[in-house]
Write a structure and sequence with these properties.
The complex is a heterodimer.
Chain A (H helix, E strand, L loop, with lengths): L6 H20 L6 H10 L1 H15 L7 H18 L4 H25 L4 H19 L4 E2 L3 H8 L1 E4 L3 E4 H19 L1 H11 L1 H6 L4 H27 L1 E2 L7 H11 L11 H21 L5 H36 L1
Antiparallel strand pairs in A: 1-4, 2-3
Helix pairs in contact in A: 1-13, 2-8, 2-13, 3-8, 3-9, 3-11, 3-12, 3-13, 4-5, 4-6, 4-11, 5-6, 5-11, 8-9, 9-11, 12-13, 13-14
Chain B lengths: L5 E12 L2 E12 L3 E5 L6 H8 L7 E6 L2 E2 L5 H7 L1 E4 L11 H6 L5 E2 L2 E2 L1 H13 L16 H15 L3 E5 L7 H16 L3 E5 L3 H7 L2 E6 L2 E7 L5 H9 L25 E8 L3 E8 L4 E5 L6 H8 L7 E6 L2 E3 L4 H6 L2 E4 L3 H5 L6 H13 L7 H14 L16 H13 L5 E5 L7 H16 L3 E5 L3 H7 L2 E6 L2 E7 L5 H9 L8
Parallel strand pairs in B: 3-10, 3-11, 6-9, 9-10, 15-20, 15-21, 18-19, 19-20
Antiparallel strand pairs in B: 1-2, 1-4, 4-5, 7-8, 11-12, 13-14, 13-16, 16-17, 21-22
Helix pairs in contact in B: 8-17, 12-13, 12-14
The chains are: A mainly alpha, B alpha/beta.
């Protein structure tokens, strides 16, 4: 029997399979590994960031700074490598340290100053975006043999598809993220805090360090997503990735994670990313549709999922009430 | 520490919040293998004491010894490690996790650094079997009844701590059968040598399960006694802080003027709600003050919620002037001319950031509908007249409500309802937390209001207060209306006797 807890995930999976089948019926070429490979590559940076967002939302919080941190990271790396001639690995390491510290700081403010995550990360969003402008307002091209090598790297998959380094990185992040969520104490603590921070505290969960850890993780993954974005576009631009945090939230929610926290799966977010990618690919195949249809479909899906989640909560409450009556 | 059997010993525990003393030099001793009830009315300091024992608060004064060694737990986790586990009434476990995850949160068995789910499941099963629970430990906690959750919480706490188990109102939402199940578990744990502290409002349950009782009142220790040697009446007088003595009623025979034979215009019959208050009959006549007495948790506030339509009754009828009415919401109750001043003034009554005038005008506004706003001139004159007649200080209608003292806030809430000209006003603990002067004024006002023909229902845990103002007193116990005292019967002694009379039908 399907667990009520996993019902949103199963629904998302079902919707994805049906939608994909419908797409393939209309455009048989969408079945090819080439399309799938591109879909993964195109959404790699979003997927990486969405894993961090999954943890944040599972804990009952929100992180609005993601898009800005990605932009900051890409400009930072581009300037370091492109203009200053620093080795890419050094630039990557430096920017990951910065973004992780930035996330920890936001987590600490949320926990120890008691400021709502919405407000703290909104401030973080402006701060990171501003810092990106400060470094450069121009689009900075980047070229380095190592970066070229990473960009050129791929596995050939049967059917002509390419599994690129970016796609592999995203898949790794999802696999590790799923393990951390399901099989570590940190993961269990995230779910516990999302269920009820007060109860979690009374049960001895280290709420403080966990909260800081959650936003540090989100910061780290935003930085990693920024690196992926830099590799993807071969440049850094401070005006890029505006609103990516909202796409990430959408992927998480469509993936079946409750916006109120405590319930959801990292794997669900992966499906959420695939659904978004699928819509974009369909629009490309169709050729006549405006790309804004992506937003419209995402909007409709979000509504459907929020209503679905309410419905499930209502249903399980009712079942519980009935169960009680039977016991008596 | 001369007593070798003592498990947890607290001496001279003191705690103050913002200069207000919550606990004053309280001694408490828990022995090995005993169930110890902790009793007291609201504000007695029970929860403060528990929170100090379990590491939520730090104490200002006093010492604590566990197994003869001095301890100072500074967090729940530390208290748990020391051996003191707590099960709270509502917030105890996480409904979004499975039973097994709840049992092992923070101490999951691991293999190669990852949580070993199979081992966790196996251990959870084994643990719950000892409590006679055979349930699917992979199901969400939210899919089980409150009783099962309570047992899971106890299993976790005992497994985690193992010396002292603190239960904060464990039976509040359980039915009789579930309570018996819980008590069976507690008795078994007692045999295993655990010390159990139980907080409850149900005296029957205290006598059914506990060995000793400690009573607190106003942050002070009243006493610790063996229950086998403590008559119920004496326990109640310990809780209410009154000696048994005959006080002749100063109240004049005013009730004679209220012809008790006259048909009451406001009648409730068979009125009740499952799980809240057992069905009761209540007639209220004009100019009458009906007092409601009972211990905390006996159903006093629940009765008020039913009368005012905050909770919907599921049995019985309400009639006003022989017209049957449906109290489906506070709005409906206001339309029938009812008013209600809640017990939790700060959270349920006032809007602190609004001015005094706005707070007073609120109910009038609600009554005439939000589409027709009261003009600011009307509001000002309304506020002014009540500030004058009730002597609200400072006499500044534009001051924000939160800056007023408790007594003046209470008067402003009264003014809010009086402005609507209600025929029935329900007051839940109208004099709690206000100074003596305001206390007397509010009592005087109640008398004046009923002289003007208004009906009042006054809920209070101060027996003196009730006997001074009420013409009739309804006594509640264990969520039932168990007695009604009239005229000369209304004495503090009689009320206590009535509360003490055990509900024989469910004596355990």
């Amino acid at each position: 029997m399907i667990h009520t807890r996993n019902l949103p995930f199963v629904t998302t999976l079902g919707i994805f399979v049906i939608a994909y089948a419908l797409c393939v019926l209309q455009f048989p070429n969408m079945m090819s590994t080439r399309v799938i490979g591109n879909l993964l590559t195109d959404n790699a940076f979003l997927g990486i960031a969405a894993v961090g967002m999954t943890f944040v939302i599972l804990s009952g919080g929100i992180d609005l700074s993601i898009g800005s941190v990605i932009a900051f990271t890409s400009v930072f790396v581009a300037v370091m490598v492109g203009s200053l001639g620093v080795h890419p690995l050094v630039a990557f390491a430096a920017v990951l340290v910065i973004s992780t510290l930035f996330g920890s700081l936001m987590g600490a403010m949320i926990r120890y100053l008691g400021i709502p995550p919405f407000v703290v990360t909104l401030a973080g969003m402006f701060l990171a975006r501003g810092a990106a402008y400060l470094i450069s307002t121009e689009s900075v091209p980047i070229s380095h043999e190592m970066i070229d090598a990473i960009q050129g790297f791929y596995f050939r998959v049967p059917g002509g598809g390419r599994l690129t380094a970016l796609a592999i990185l995203m898949l790794l992040v999802f696999i590790v993220g799923a393990f951390v969520a399901a099989r570590t104490r940190f993961g269990a603590n995230v779910y516990a805090i999302g269920g009820s921070q007060q109860s979690a505290e009374l049960m001895g969960v280290p709420v403080g360090s966990t909260t800081v850890g959650i936003y540090a993780l989100s910061g780290f993954l935003s930085g990693l997503a920024g690196i992926a974005y830099t590799l993807y576009t071969s440049s850094g631009y401070s005006l890029a990735t505006v609103g990516v945090e909202l796409d990430a939230i959408a992927a998480v929610v469509i993936g079946g994670t409750l916006l109120t926290g405590g319930v959801g799966l990292v794997a669900g977010t992966f499906i959420g990313i695939l659904i978004q990618g699928l819509i974009q690919t369909y629009i490309v195949f169709d050729g006549t549709l405006s790309s804004w249809w992506t937003k419209i479909v995402i909007g409709i899906l979000l509504f459907v999922f929020i209503v679905l989640q309410r419905g499930i909560i209502w249903y399980s409450n009712r079942r519980l009430a009935e169960g009680r009556l039977k016991e008596i | 520490m001369s007593d070798t059997n003592s498990l947890l010993e607290a001496r001279g525990i003191g705690k103050a919040f913002l200069g207000i003393t919550a606990l004053d030099s309280v001694d408490f001793t828990l022995e090995r293998g005993e169930i110890h009830a902790l009793l007291g009315e609201n504000g007695a300091g029970k929860s403060t004491l528990i929170k100090i024992l379990t590491g939520v608060y730090s104490r200002d004064h006093g010492t604590m010894h566990l197994d003869g060694a001095e301890v100072t737990p500074s967090s729940v986790a530390e208290a748990q490690d020391l051996g003191i586990g707590t099960v709270y009434q509502e917030v105890n476990l996480l409904e979004n996790l499975t039973v097994a995850e709840n049992l092992f949160l923070g101490r999951q068995p691991r293999r190669f650094g990852l949580i070993d789910r199979r081992e966790m499941r196996r251990r959870s099963k084994a643990l719950l079997e000892r409590y006679g629970l055979d349930i699917d430990v992979d199901a969400l906690l939210s899919s089980y009844s409150v009783a099962v959750r309570q047992l899971v919480a106890i299993a976790r706490a005992v497994d985690l701590s193992g010396k002292v188990l603190v239960l904060d109102e464990p039976t509040a939402s359980l039915d009789a059968h579930e309570v018996e199940m819980l008590f069976a578990v507690l008795r078994r744990l007692r045999q295993e040598g655990l010390g159990i502290i139980i907080i409850t409002h149900f005296l029957n349950q205290v006598y059914a399960v506990a060995d000793r009782v400690t009573v607190l009142r106003n942050g002070r220790l009243v006493g610790t006694r063996k229950l086998a040697e403590l008559p119920r009446l004496e326990l109640i007088s310990m809780m209410l802080g009154r000696e048994l003595q005959h006080i002749t009623r100063e109240h004049q025979a005013q009730e004679e003027t209220i012809a008790s034979t006259a048909e009451a215009p406001i009648r409730f019959s068979g009125y009740g709600k499952r799980g809240s208050v057992a069905p009761f009959d209540l007639d209220i006549r004009p100019g009458e003050v009906v007092g409601v007495a009972g211990l905390l948790g006996s159903g006093r506030t629940e009765t008020a919620f039913l009368l005012f339509g905050i909770d919907r009754a599921d049995s019985g009828t309400a009639t006003v002037d022989n017209q049957q009415i449906t109290l489906s919401s506070p709005e409906a109750a206001i339309a029938s001319g009812f008013g209600f001043c809640p017990e939790e003034r700060k959270t349920d009554g006032i809007i602190g950031d609004f001015s005094v005038a706005d707070n007073i005008a609120l109910a009038v506004q609600a009554r005439q509908g939000w589409a027709k706003p009261i003009s600011s001139r009307e509001k000002a004159s309304l506020a002014e007249s009540f500030i004058k007649s009730l002597d609200i200080r400072p006499a500044d209608a534009n001051r924000q409500m939160k800056f007023l003292s408790g007594g003046n806030q209470q008067k402003a809430i009264l003014a809010r309802w009086l402005a609507t000209g209600p025929r029935l006003l329900i007051l839940d603990e109208p004099t709690r937390g206000i100074d003596i002067g305001a206390h007397a004024e509010i009592l005087k006002m109640i008398e004046k209001l009923c002289a003007d023909g208004m009906s009042l229902v006054v809920i209070s845990s101060e027996l003196e207060e009730l006997t001074a103002i009420a013409h009739r007193v309804i006594v509640l116990s264990d969520r039932k209306h168990i007695a009604q005292l009239k005229g000369d019967q209304v004495t503090a002694d009689n009320i206590m006797q009535a509360i003490a009379a055990p509900a024989r039908t469910e004596a355990a």
